[in-house]
Design a protein that fits this description.
Layout lengths: L1 H31 L4 H6 L11 H8 L2 H32 L5 H10 L9 H11 L6 H24 L3 H9 L4 H12 L1 H16 L3 H6 L8 H4 L11 H35 L1
Length: 273
């Protein structure tokens, strides 16, 4: 017992070092957000600061609420449609035998190899021609389209591992493919759904390039674009920027921890069954 404990000490030390390296930047960001500009320049690396919320007030005065609403609107709709379309596409690709199923799957997966930034100019022109330029709707198409390949790949692989006896038993009971999909398959792939929700939420919430190209009006800016307002022509209000970044990172952390719990429950539930 003592020998086993001794062997685990290096693992605990390594875990502690990883915690310091990964946790310190976030801790520094949060503590810096409570400093004034003068305090930051006097001692930028001090971790002991008086708590004051003037930077958070300033962040909201510069339109942080509007950026939050825009980002949440785009992210929520995009993730919802990504999950729906990916699940609907993955079910026939993995559970129904038909010609060209492997070819269609490879076509979907090949989208993962497409460098998305090479499509900026065509998407910019297409958005202008459709009359969607400088609107939040302009972001939905690229976000959904470029997130579907990886989502379909994950869900198809996960559905392929499910036992077919469950569907055969449901078909004997008179269930249609639609009912099998909604009532049987979807509840069983909760871990995979949680994975693509986390992945796509983080990616879309922090996406910058497409928002920069397709959005120009301040009232339509998402959070990554809105962060530019904390940069002056010659200076940067670092504490105010840190306050805005702290607020912007909270939804990501909440979604991650919430969905992480769902993944664990789904895995343990499937193991017991």
């Amino acid at each position: 017992m003592a020998l086993r404990t001794f062997k685990t000490i290096p693992l605990y030390i390594l875990s502690l070092l990883l915690l310091v390296f990964t946790g310190y930047p976030f801790l520094y960001m949060v503590l810096t957000s409570f400093k004034t500009q003068e305090m930051f320049f006097m001692d930028p690396f001090s971790l002991f600061v008086p708590v004051q919320f003037s930077n958070y007030v300033m962040a909201f005065e510069k339109g942080l609420t509007s950026y939050f609403v825009n980002s949440f609107y785009v992210t929520a709709i995009s993730v919802l449609l990504i999950v729906l379309f990916a699940a609907l596409a993955s079910y026939p690709l993995s559970r129904i035998r038909f010609r060209m199923s492997k070819v269609l799957f490879m076509l979907f997966v090949s989208g993962m190899m497409l460098p998305i930034h090479s499509t900026l100019i065509p998407i910019f022109k297409l958005t202008q021609d459709m009359g969607l330029y400088d609107s939040l709707m302009a972001l939905l198409g690229p976000y959904i389209a470029f997130s579907l390949p990886i989502s379909i790949f994950i869900l198809t692989q996960f559905m392929s591992e499910l036992p077919r006896e469950i569907e055969e038993a449901a078909e004997i009971d008179g269930c249609t493919h639609a009912r099998i999909f909604w009532n049987i398959i979807l509840p069983m792939i909760t871990p995979a759904l949680s994975t693509i929700v986390i992945y796509n939420f983080i990616h879309i919430w922090t996406e910058f390039i497409f928002a920069l190209v397709l959005i120009t009006s301040p009232e339509n800016m998402t959070l990554p674009l809105g962060m530019q307002k904390y940069y002056g022509e010659l200076t940067v209000n670092v504490p105010a920027l840190m306050a805005a970044l702290t607020m912007a990172s909270m939804p990501i952390l909440l979604v991650y921890f919430f969905a992480q719990e769902k993944i664990v429950k789904g895995l343990t539930g499937g193991a017991v069954k």
